[in-house]
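Training component of the fellowship. As part of building independent skills, the fellow (R.M.) carried out the full modelling exercise for a liganded target. The chosen ligand was inosinic acid. The inputs are recorded below so that the supervisory panel can assess the work.
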Amino acid sequence: MKNLPGKIVVATRNRGKVREVAELASGLPIEFLTLADFEDVPDVVEDGLTFEDNALKKAREVFHHTHTATLADDSGLCVDALDGRPGVLSARYAGDDVPDYMRYMKILDEMEGVPHELRTAKFVCVLALITEDGEELLFRGECPGTITTRPIGSNGFGYDPIFLYEPTRLTFGQMDKAAKNAVSHRGKAMKLLIEELSIQSRVT
Ligand code: IMP
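Fellow's submitted model of the complex:
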């Protein structure tokens, strides 16, 4: 990174997500904004083949519109026995407007009879940062785990109840937010981003 951005717009309308980023970066002289701080930012169609494609596409479109350093993310669950599905389709697996449980039940159905040792999977999160001068940086975090045979736990969101994190023998649906963030794909990608921003803040 050549210059530390003074402001970063996080490509989301979710204020909670931005608060989380701002808290992690609280020691840095950076102001975090959301899409709600700008007018008429178009919605981005996430039709890329990889998490990197989607995160970059989102970041580029928002950067183009706001002329401000932009951070965008894409994430999902990749299941080995399903050839990496749902992958980039994680948010839309089983249809657009269906509740989370229908998505994870679809996976459990598709994996009926698959033995424990072949139920390996990983969560992936890619963050794309475009700096004020148009430099593009990618940060990738992964978390390996195993797909359960039934949903367990009600914490978190999405596929958390069927994702067993082996070191704790708990699903993400059973772990509290702090415990999950410490080991999750998103936590790891965020850590890499914050490290890069911290290095840059010491240089400039
Ligand atoms: P995105 O908003 O395009 O990144 O969609 C990510 C989708 O992947 C979410 O809607 C969830 O279904 C799934 N996903 C990503 N991260 C997690 C996680 O930490 N727990 C559970 N599901 C997740």
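The panel noted the following from the submitted structure. The mean pLDDT is 95. The beta strands are 7-10, 31-34, 70-79, 120-130, 136-147, 163-165, 170-171.
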